[in-house]
């Protein structure tokens, strides 16, 4: 059975882009992200014992698809001819596709998150997120804390200063809730954030070994989601999202 026939068998199509559910114009990052997303549903370690054999073969096919589309030369040949330059069974059957996956999607540690936080703060990305959160929440600082990654208690004065300068420069509208926030509302937010910060740090450290993530920015999104739904078990939901797709 040819490789494209295997694609048909396991994914119902012979188009490699369709296997990953992406457009032909997808960027390298989009190809990688799609591979990760699709692989979670057939990763041999994520399925029942009775499904492992089938999942392993499907996982191998998916790995080969990514291998082709992530290689500029192979992808160019495939786009032009519908095939590629090393269409043989040696690499496909002999390669350790589990190791291939682990190489691409390394375990994310707390240290990785902290390093990402350092790069994010003060960056253009943070500024963009602040402006979007400010306007989306109509100046509500509670909304800014929910929607902008890594905003902590000690950041409040810095964030307010950034936003005020943008307001003074007419880059942002004036919202009464921002310029005259009730002290009671601010105090309530401070108490909540102190409690959440302590809980989040304890849970991240406790379950760090159980959590894998290929994309730090996605983990940041999960952290923000936890703020918006404080009754959810953040890391349990994170594991479910990763391991069950």
Automatic annotation (TrEMBL):
Example GO CC term: the record gives:
nucleus
Molecular-function GO terms, alphabetical: heat shock protein binding
Enumerate the SMART domains for this protein: DnaJ
Q: Which domain of life is it from?
A: Eukaryota
> Domain J, which positions?
15-82
Keyword Phosphoprotein in the entry? The reply is yes
Which keywords does this Swiss-Prot/TrEMBL entry list? Coiled coil, Phosphoprotein
Respond yes or no to whether keyword Phosphoprotein is given for this record.
Answer: yes
PANTHER family, per database record: DNAJ HOMOLOG SUBFAMILY C MEMBER 9
Q: State the protein's name.
A: J domain-containing protein
């Amino acid at each position: 059975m040819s490789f494209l026939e295997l694609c048909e068998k396991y994914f119902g199509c012979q188009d490699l882009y369709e296997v990953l559910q992406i457009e032909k114009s997808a960027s390298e990052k989009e190809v990688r992200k799609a591979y990760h997303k699709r692989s979670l549903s057939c990763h041999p370690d994520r399925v029942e014992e009775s499904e492992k054999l089938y999942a392993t073969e499907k996982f191998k096919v998916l790995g080969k698809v990514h291998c082709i589309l992530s290689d500029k030369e192979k992808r160019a040949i495939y786009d032009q001819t519908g095939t590629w330059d090393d269409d043989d069974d040696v690499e496909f059957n002999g390669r350790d596709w589990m190791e291939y996956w682990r190489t691409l999607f390394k375990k994310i540690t707390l240290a990785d998150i902290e390093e990402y936080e350092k790069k994010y703060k003060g960056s253009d990305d943070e500024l963009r997120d602040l402006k979007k959160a400010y306007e989306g929440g109509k100046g509500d600082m509670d909304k800014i804390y929910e929607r902008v990654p890594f905003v902590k208690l000690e950041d409040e004065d810095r964030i307010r200063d950034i936003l005020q300068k943008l307001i003074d420069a007419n880059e942002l509208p004036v919202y009464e809730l921002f310029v005259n926030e009730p002290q009671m509302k601010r105090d309530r937010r401070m108490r909540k954030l102190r409690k959440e910060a302590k809980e989040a740090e304890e849970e991240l450290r406790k379950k760090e070994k159980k959590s894998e993530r290929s994309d730090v920015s996605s983990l940041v999104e999960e952290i923000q989601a936890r703020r918006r739904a404080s009754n959810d078990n953040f890391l349990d939901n994170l594991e479910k999202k990763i391991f069950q797709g």
